[in-house]
Design brief:
It is a single chain. It contains eight helices and twelve strands. With 254 residues, it is α/β, with parallel strands linked by helices. The strands form two sheets. Strands 3-2-1-11-12-9 form a six-stranded mixed β-sheet, covered by helices on one side. The chain has a six-stranded mixed β-sheet with strand order 4-5-6-10-7-8, covered by helices on one side. α2 links the parallel β2 and β3. α7 runs antiparallel to α8. It is 30% helix and 22% strand. Bound molecules: zinc ion. The site of zinc ion has 7 residues, from loops.
Length: 254
């Protein structure tokens, strides 16, 4: 059993298409494709990305930007740039995509028959960021499943806990421009909080789009980074009159 895991696409169509191509979507069979939320917000292609992910993913949870852009929550907690992007996204989304976003479930969502769940933020609260082991610690012990995939921080990697021993890891890559992958072997009896990284707006200093693949029987999760058409994605942001910073930060991976 195999699942493709995508998070924080943020309206970046070029990154999403590059990820689907690198994951051989359509040629290789996945038993499931999970979308961990923040489908829209920041990027210049909200309708195109929503249309695509609706057709591709088999399970979804909502992100904080999805909630604000479709009117479920106010943008008051957002910084001015995020707020401006959310207002533009709300104006741009068509009614059908708006309605679909409004009805997305919150995490944690179990995804049987896999022994895993998906969430946007923490499995304890969908809006909480898991940035360090302190944030992860109680969630790791209270999780109903062996693995929870989460997003929200746009930082690829994860946390593990096994009977009083815990750890944190980030995939190790050698390039900054080529497609790369890094494998995590899952240990028996260990609980994992795993972040596939952000497809559309990475913030871990690596501009390449991130995603992950779970192979449950093989006890293996593979983390990936792939380049995408950055100039085109930046162009959509600038043409939409969105803040310039949203385009420049894509190159920095910040
Ligand atoms: Zn996000």
């Amino acid at each position: 059993m195999r699942s493709l895991i995508l998070s924080d696409i943020h309206g970046n169509l070029e990154a999403l298409e590059s990820v689907l191509q690198a994951a051989h979507y359509g040629e290789e069979t996945y038993d499931a494709i999970w979308n961990l939320g923040d489908i829209v917000g920041y990027g210049g292609s909200p309708n195109e990305v929503t249309d695509r992910i609706r057709n591709v993913a088999t399970a979804h949870v909502r992100g904080n930007h999805d909630k604000v852009c479709c009117g479920l929550e106010s943008a008051l907690g957002f910084n001015p740039i995020a707020r401006q992007a959310a207002a533009w996204t709300a104006e741009t989304l068509n009614e059908e995509n708006m309605e679909w976003l409004r009805n997305l479930p919150h995490g944690p969502l179990p995804v049987p028959p896999f022994a895993a769940a998906i969430a946007h933020g923490s499995p304890l609260d969908e809006d909480l960021y898991i940035l360090n082991i302190r944030d992860a610690w109680s969630a790791l012990q209270q999780m109903q499943t062996r693995i929870t995939f989460f997003g929200h921080t746009h930082v690829q990697g994860g946390f593990q806990w096994n009977d009083g021993t815990w750890g944190e890891f980030r995939p190790k890559y050698s390039s900054q421009n080529d497609p790369e992958q890094w494998t995590l072997e899952l240990a028996e009896g260990t609980h994992y909080l795993l972040n596939p990284g952000s497809v559309g707006q990475p913030r871990d200093g690596d501009w390449r789009a991130g995603f992950a693949v779970l192979e449950e029987e093989a006890n293996r999760v593979t983390f990936h980074r792939v380049p995408y058409d950055l100039a085109r994605a930046q162009g959509h942001i600038l043409m939409a009159d969105l803040p310039e910073r949203l385009a420049t930060r894509l190159r920095e991976g910040r």
